[in-house]
Structure formats: C-alpha cells, structure tokens
C-alpha cells in the first residue's frame, strides 16, 4: 500500500504507447491501476509536455511525461509522534493515566491525519502490550478529539481485560464538567434516551428510538446569566453522549456548533470547541485492587470561557 516517500518521475512516451489514452499509458508505465492513474490525473499530478491533461487525452510518442505519485499512507498506521500538551498523570506497570488536550484523537482512524494518544505513547517509549488491533492497543475508553481531560490506557493484557470489564459493567466513575447554554430544569436530573447515528449526517449522533441505551446524570454546580456549569456522571459511554443529551435538553455545550450551540456566544467566550472536560476518573486498580482516583484541571481555553461567563451580569 505504501510507496514510501512521494515519488516524482519524468520519462518520454515510448513509441509502443503512441495513441494510448493518458490514464492507460500511465497505468502501464508505472504499474498502477487505471483508477489510480485517473485519480493522479484528476489531482493535477500528471503533466504532458508541462501541460495539464485529461485522462482521455491521447499520448504522442516522444512527449515528456511528468508524474508525481504521492505516498499512500495506511490510515490506521500508528505513527510514533510526541504530542505537545499530553500530560502523564500516573504511570506504572499496569496502566498509564494521561491528561488529553483538545485536538488529539485517541487512536488512528480513516479520515484523521492529526496527532493521536496511541502515537504519542509509542513515541514516548511506553510499552503497551495488549490484544486487539495495533492502532487501538491498550485503549479501554475514548474521548472525542474535541474533548479534553483524564483518561486511562492499559499497558498489560491483564490490566486491559480488568479495565475493559470495569467499563463494561459501569463500575468506573467517569465525571465530566460541561458548560451548557441556559439553565437545565430541573437543576439536577437524569437523561435516559437511546443514542444512534444521525439519519442525515454520518458524523453526528442523535437521540433515536432504535439507538443504544444511554444514561447521563447531571447536577448544576453554578448558574450564570447565559450558561450553567454542570457536573456530569456517565453511566454509559456512547460516542458524543453528553453532547447529544445536552442538545436534546435544548442546553447544548457552549461552543458545540455541531450540536446546536450559539455561534455568537462561542465567539464571545473565545471557544473553538465544545466546553466539555473529563475532570475525574475513579476505578479499582487492576493490579493492587485499590480504589484510585485521577483528576485533571480545566485547560486554558475552557477556564477563560468560564471566566467570561462568570463575569457576564
């Protein structure tokens, strides 16, 4: 799948290919599929005598062919890369607990080209040896790219199975803080509403009758003029769960434009993402059996937005 680095080649069209279509000629000269050749032409990576061409153009013997073949990368390849901003909160033989910054995915996936937690841990020399696909080794929970905070990664096979089980049986205390628009009524409560993929947008989720069972408990810590700071305990851990449930209550997370937040308010508090942070994670340590709790403070962008909201009278 990989050509390694970008490949740039220049050669003259041999007489035997006189009159062939450009895509066919390139496919034969470089051992590519016709589809791949057509993609390169469409992307402007092919020049004939220094001019752009269409795939159905015919080649003339002796013409100069310039072809750039960008490196194909495997979207699931783990690229070891130190990610600035990932803080190690705790590390032992069984687990590593990190503070994940915004803009970092937990593991590689198709369509994501940015930094990942898994890539950072490999780059930083952490040995994660667990079963499962290599790009998801040790991953027992996830946080969205746009969500920051505390998360645990299993380093050993035993820790992996114990923690996987704990998350599955909901014995892990997952506490988040969310700044949501308006004031939820009642001030504390539970949202029990199934979540599934949004019928229209595949990057979104929604409360759907045939979705997966999802339960969110919330309580109001601070109520301000435009927004409320909530403490949230997740009973289940669906993708985007808090964001979807808050949006369904008509109190989306401040800055969460995907789920209906007010862009003017987001701009006013200087947010480029949803105000949602994983503040605390408590579980039974897979080796010692002791109850352990790890915490993370608000990052600068969320703290600033909260300060603006607190000062808005």
TrEMBL record:
Transmembrane segments: none
Keyword Isomerase: yes
Domain of life, per lineage: Bacteria
Organism: Nocardioides eburneus
SMART domains: S4 (SM00363)
Enzyme class: isomerase
Protein name: Pseudouridine synthase
Domain named RNA-binding S4: residues: 20-87
Family statement: Belongs to the pseudouridine synthase RluA family.
Keywords associated with the record: Isomerase, RNA-binding
Purpose of the protein: Responsible for synthesis of pseudouridine from uracil.
Documented EC number(s): 5.4.99.-
Catalytic activity: a uridine in RNA = a pseudouridine in RNA
Record Gene3D superfamilies: Pseudouridine synthase, RNA-binding S4 domain
InterPro entries: PsdUridine_synth_cat_dom_sf, PsdUridine_synth_RluA-like_CS, PsdUridine_synth_RluC/D, PsdUridine_synth_RsuA/RluA, RluA_PseudoU_synthase, S4_RNA-bd, S4_RNA-bd_sf
Entry keyword Transcription regulation: no
């Amino acid at each position: 799948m990989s050509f390694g680095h970008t490949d740039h080649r220049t050669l003259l069209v041999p007489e035997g290919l006189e009159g062939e279509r450009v895509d066919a000629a390139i496919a034969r000269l470089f051992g590519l599929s016709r589809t791949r050749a057509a993609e390169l032409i469409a992307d402007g990576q092919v020049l004939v005598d220094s001019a752009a061409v269409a795939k159905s153009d015919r080649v003339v013997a002796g013409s100069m062919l310039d072809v750039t073949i960008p490196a194909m990368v495997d979207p699931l390849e783990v690229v070891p890369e130190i990610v600035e901003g990932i803080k190690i909160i705790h590390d032992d033989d069984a687990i590593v607990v990190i503070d994940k910054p915004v803009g970092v995915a937990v593991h590689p996936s198709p369509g994501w080209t940015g930094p990942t937690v898994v890539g950072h841990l490999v780059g930083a020399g952490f040995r994660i040896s667990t079963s499962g696909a290599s790009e998801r080794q040790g991953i027992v929970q996830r946080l969205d790219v746009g969500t920051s905070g505390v998360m645990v990664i299993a380093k050993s096979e035993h820790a992996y199975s114990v923690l996987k089980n704990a998350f599955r049986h909901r014995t892990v205390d997952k506490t988040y803080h969310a700044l949501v628009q308006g004031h939820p009524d009642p001030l504390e409560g539970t949202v029990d509403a199934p979540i599934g993929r949004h019928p229209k947008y595949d990057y979104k989720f929604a409360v759907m009758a045939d979705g997966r069972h999802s339960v969110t408990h919330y309580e109001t810590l601070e109520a301000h003029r435009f927004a409320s700071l909530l403490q949230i305990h997740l009973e289940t851990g669906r993708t985007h769960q808090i964001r979807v449930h808050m949006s369904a209550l008509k109190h989306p997370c401040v800055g969460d434009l995907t789920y209906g937040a007010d862009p003017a308010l987001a701009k006013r508090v200087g947010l480029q993402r949803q105000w949602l942070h994983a503040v605390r994670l408590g579980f039974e340590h897979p080796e010692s059996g002791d109850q352990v709790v790890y915490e993370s403070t608000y990052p600068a962008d969320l703290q600033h937005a909260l300060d603006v909201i607190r000062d808005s009278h």
